[in-house]
Amino acid sequence: MFSHLPPLQSLRALEAAARHRSFTRAADELNLTHSAVSHHMRSLEQQLGTALFRRVGARMIPTSVGARLAERVRIGMSELDEAFTEARAGTAAGGAPGTVRLEVSVMTDLASQWMIPRLARFSERHPGIDLMVRVHADIAAPDPYSVDVGVWHQRVEETGFVTRKLLDDYVIAVCHPDLIARVPGFTVADTPRLPMLRFAHRSWRDWLVAAGLPPHEPTRGPIFDDSGLLLRAAIAGQGVATTRSLLVRDTLASGELVQVGDIRIPPSLEYHVSWRENHPRERAIHAFWQWMQDEIAATAPLGPPSVRAGERPA
């Protein structure tokens, strides 16, 4: 039985090299030398009688045979990992046999501002699924094979992946209610009189144009590279910030922040959820996807705008 299987290390090298499109990066991941990975690939190719990779510039691109074999190896290793995870859970003190670990990569802002406060409800609803949450800050999606599920700004266009749009969101302006109270008879036209917090990844221009105001970017004050820190500054009363509405639904509902006007503009990037077709943990993935949809549907909707453009508060 299993007499045709090559050494496990060769299979691991194949999977990593196909995923990274690089023998060097595969070697770094597996703590091997480049020559060792090359040796494993030559050994596999001799055993199979066909090429598994072809060099294109500085990249090692798997052939059709190599790509299919690497995907089958990836699925098999995922099943083995899940089997060992279940076995460990069954032998640990108080462990529950059958527990599934699901690795989820989530954009940092969505994880910190919206998802983390709701994770306890996922555990209550699915006690047999343990989420390993990995945050991702770059706009470009990482290697889609590196996790079970990705919640990223970019779609995964590779064959064999399912990608679903998470929601229709929009960008709004928010600030601490005390900030507006400092300007008697505040209207949206007064917004430039307030400190306007700057975000490295979003311009004020579109919001200002939609509000009928001159599209002059603020030129003073701190610039935030992280949206979570930007919102902390807004909650602390340091200025007005533009943000995705989903990220501030909770703070708007609690009164920590108020929306400035009713201007709502489309974001430049959307959230997409992606996973591999026929994934060995497909049931857990679908449970996670359904939970996210239900939580979004239950998230407090925006109330009436605090100040409409051109109007003064009563």
How far apart are the termini?
Answer: 81 Å
**Whole-number radius of gyration?**
25 Å
- Give, in order, the helices and strands: HHHEEHEHHEEEEHEHEHEHEEH
Q: What is the tally of helical segments?
A: 11
CATH class of the largest domain: Alpha Beta
Second CATH tier, the architecture of the largest domain: 3-Layer(aba) Sandwich
Q: Tell me the strand order in the biggest sheet.
A: 4-3-5-12-6
* pLDDT < 50 stretches: 91-95, 304-314
The SS-based structural class is: alpha/beta
Structure description:
This protein has 314 residues and is α/β, with parallel strands linked by helices. It has three domains: 8-87, Arc Repressor Mutant, subunit A (Orthogonal Bundle), CATH 1.10.10.10; 100-168 and 270-298, Periplasmic binding protein-like II (D-Maltodextrin-Binding Protein, domain 2), CATH 3.40.190.10; 171-265, Periplasmic binding protein-like II (D-Maltodextrin-Binding Protein, domain 2, 3-Layer(aba) Sandwich), CATH 3.40.190.10. The protein is built from eleven helices and twelve strands. The strands form four sheets. A five-stranded mixed beta sheet has the order 4-3-5-12-6, with helices on both faces. Strands 10-7-11 form a three-stranded antiparallel beta sheet. The protein is elongated and about 80 Å long. Keywords: DNA-binding, Transcription, Transcription regulation. This is Glycine cleavage system regulatory protein. Residues 6-63 form the HTH lysR-type domain.
